[in-house]
Amino acid sequence: MVLLDMLVVLCGQTVATLLGRYYYNSGGNSKWMATLTQSGGSPLLAILLLLTPRDPVGEPRPAAAKMVPIYLGLGTLIGFDNLMYSYALQYLPVSTFALVAATQLAFNSVTSRLINAQRFTALIANSVVVLTFSAALLGVGSSSDGTSAADLPRGKYTLGFILTLSASAVFALILSLFEVTFEKAVRGRTLRWVLRVQMCTNFVAATVAVCGLLASGEWRTIPGEMAAFEDGRARYVATLVGTAVSWQAMSVATLRLITRVSSLFANVTGTVSLPLVPVFAVVLFGDRMTGIKAVAMLMAVWGFLSYVYQHYLDGRRAAAMGGQGGAAECCVCKARAGGEAALPA
């Protein structure tokens, strides 16, 4: 199930990012509409919720008075984080956007340590440093990116870079807050709870996007935008629907990984799509894969492999303990099991 969730995260994030860029490339221009697609598919989760088995008897059921403020707080945070990503995706080539967004892993390493008491080793620190330098390299080399210089007004590339970094930091915080929510408030990790939390928080985020769409007046431009869309009205609707479904699939799988392992593990899984998006962007959108982007991509992959190697060492250590008569168990699972055992009945 963990491997399946990882696959859904990879596919969902890659497809959603590419469709988001396709929306802008084909004539779409509404930031709030792009923001809405990132959380507007949440009503679809109600169908899955009806099809999933009910929680077993004795499953913790937190009071609504405790969960409603959490839904409102996290949902509002998600809504504005989606808005920053929407602006950033318009101002950056999709390959650069994907590489800079990888810094969310570095930010998540910090928030996981401070909020979730994640063990911080030398290899994880190496991952943080390498990914940070990878993003900095893209920022310094922005002037050599012919795509950005030709297609964007002056200063928009820098703004997109800053917005992507800010959105990545907020996203890392959101993942850590989701993890602590399930550990301290929900105290249940069934599929129904994952769907329930995802649906409620994203419904709040979608409400934020709808309010922004109405308040900004962008809703008046939607009919014209649809009519002028490069591939027709049907393709316009299909693009928005496909983006919304992809984001929801990715978000649910990410939340399942958070509940099964940790927020840092879920974030690392999302980083695996890093080499995929720029390659598809070069093929589909004509983005230039410059030497600087190639080096930054390799550095980001190096940062990811550092984290993977840390898990490999943890696995060998657990196996060695098992050979000495102890139970060979993943250190993350062991720590989570210990936390659950400490919960009151």
From TrEMBL:
Keyword annotations of the record: Membrane, Signal, Transmembrane, Transmembrane helix, Transport
GO molecular function terms listed in the Swiss-Prot or TrEMBL record: purine nucleobase transmembrane transporter activity; purine nucleoside transmembrane transporter activity
Pfam hit, one: PUNUT
Transmembrane segments: 91-108, 120-140, 160-181, 193-216, 236-257, 264-285, 291-309
Membrane-related topology note: Multi-pass membrane protein
InterPro entries, per database record: EmrE-like, PUP_plant
Signal peptide positions on this chain: 1-16
Superkingdom assignment: Eukaryota
Recorded family membership: Belongs to the purine permeases (TC 2.A.7.14) family.
Protein name: Probable purine permease
Organism placement in taxonomy: Eukaryota, Viridiplantae, Streptophyta, Embryophyta, Tracheophyta
